Task: inverse folding
């Protein structure tokens, strides 16, 4: 049985779980450390790709039309996420602001943007970190004069480690996020010596037995298995290509004596998989393409 979030567009388990105003209210309140009242209006504006019937970003929404929040869930650290979120926020503003207003004399007021990444991967990572768009900028000395006030364009992403046991104050304020963290942790725990599908099934049984995400997992259990199998399979493929790209980059760097050769190799595998995924290919099709 399909969930409401997936009737039209393919989504991740994370975005399906946080696909309604009440769970988003709970999540946002937990991250911000506030109690967002029930009267606050949560309007979801997550982007979707009509051609490939997929969600483009994980979750985006406005709070009382005053704040627009973009939340991405990641199981691998991607330092390019500020650039991706820059592209997403431009599309979100196109979606929620009438174009005609841009040509009037009066200043158009827009919701204040906020960018959040929730990380639950295997790599060691601090509880909280900041990623900045300006870290991607090429050096401009000699081409333009320095600006005392800083960069003319900046985007700051707040990254929170949501692995179980990390950022306990946030997880304690959101039962849904805490449950998701525990569920994903159990999949990692059960993955030792078991197939991916069996690990997911084992985690679902454990959570239902222990009162974790019971309604969601009972209602969408088979769909969760399918979505997570695709998601985690893609991660495994990306990890392999990432390692291959790293080796190629190291060789290129050694041959040319250029640091850029290594840097290009580090991102090559991940970009290749993400490009194929963006085209709507299944994990099986991606594996076939990359062989």
Result:
């Amino acid at each position: 049985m399909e969930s409401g979030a997936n009737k039209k567009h393919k989504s991740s388990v994370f975005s399906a779980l946080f696909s309604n105003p009440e769970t988003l209210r709970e999540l946002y309140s937990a991250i911000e450390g506030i109690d967002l009242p029930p009267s606050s209006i949560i309007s979801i504006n997550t982007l979707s790709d009509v051609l490939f019937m997929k969600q483009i970003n994980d979750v985006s929404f406005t709070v009382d039309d005053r704040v627009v929040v973009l939340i991405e869930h990641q199981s691998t650290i991607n330092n390019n996420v500020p650039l991706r979120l820059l592209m997403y926020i431009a599309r979100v503003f196109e979606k929620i602001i009438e174009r005609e207003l841009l040509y009037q004399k009066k200043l158009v007021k827009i919701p204040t943007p906020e960018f959040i990444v929730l990380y639950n991967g295997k790599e060691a990572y601090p509880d909280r970190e900041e990623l900045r768009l300006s870290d991607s900028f090429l050096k401009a000395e000699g081409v333009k004069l320095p600006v005392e006030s800083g960069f003319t364009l900046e985007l700051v992403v707040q990254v929170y480690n949501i692995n179980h046991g990390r950022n306990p104050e946030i997880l304690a304020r959101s039962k849904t996020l805490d449950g998701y963290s525990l569920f994903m942790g159990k999949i990692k725990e059960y993955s030792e010596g078991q197939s991916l599908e069996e690990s997911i099934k084992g985690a679902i049984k454990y959570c239902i037995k222990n009162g974790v995400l019971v309604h969601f997992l009972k209602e969408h259990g088979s769909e969760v298995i399918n979505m997570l199998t695709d998601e985690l399979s893609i991660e495994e493929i990306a990890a392999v290509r990432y390692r291959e790209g790293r080796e190629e980059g190291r060789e290129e760097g050694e041959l040319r004596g250029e640091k850029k050769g290594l840097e290009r190799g580090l991102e090559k595998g991940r970009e290749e998989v993400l490009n194929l995924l963006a085209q709507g290919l299944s994990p099986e099709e991606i594996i076939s393409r990359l062989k």
Residues 4-279 form one domain.
